[in-house]
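hey m, so remember when u said the tokens were messed up on ur end? i reran from scratch. heres the input so u can diff it against urs
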Amino acid sequence: MDVSYLEELFSVEGKTALVTGGATGIGRMVATGLVKGGARVLIASRKEEACEAAAAELNALDAAGSAVGFAGDVGSQEGIEALVAAVAERTDRLHILVNNAGVTWGEPLETFPHMAWHRVMNVNVGGLFTLTRDLLPLLDAASGDADPGRIINLGSVMGTQPLAEGAYSYSASKAAVHHLTRILAGEFAGRRITVNAFAPGPFQSKMTAFATGTEEQVIKVARGVPLGRIGTPDDVAAATLFLCGKGGSYVTGLILPLDGGLSAHTSIGLFADAL
């Protein structure tokens, strides 16, 4: 095996990344993959102590990269301005931005509150857009023809399939993230910045603990996935290294389904029942 060739294609050594919401869940999986791949990862979320703890645990891995954790809130203009300033204090260029921070709201249709739309869309779409825009100077500084800057947005299979299960504003926000990803991919191509999105299916995380918190629940959820299992941290890490390494330098506008086949599965048969 030509290890040097694999490293050339998928290494992120020497790159600096920001992962919002990177202390837990899929954000933590992304951050872990980047640190193991050699990047310096800035982890930011509303809970500073959680970010610092996550960074300490990643640094204890004795991996090729390193991590730094600090507070950052994408839920308001003031919070985004403070986060951009905090990033600028730590680096003069940003090779990778992972917009992972997000919130959800689940409630029956009859009682689903209007405020759940403002709260979810504000963070999942508005915060993502504004933070990306305000970090463009740092992304531009690290971008070039041979090695473009990279942006990964966190969408969801719920933004691909007509599926809500009570999370109406969340599902709609993730569909918006997918569309916005394609819009920005077109606009940022001239800046030599790629913009892609993950559309994950079921993974174990704090957000999905209500349905994946026990082994019994995991088995039940896995039965609904065409590949017969839920996602693992390595699934996320591998996809991250692909999009952020040399191997992904010619990929932009992609909504990558990390969902075990859910987005390609349908129970509808147009003519099967008649045969």
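this time it looks ok to me. The longest helix spans residues 168-188. if urs says something different then somethings off w ur setup not the seq
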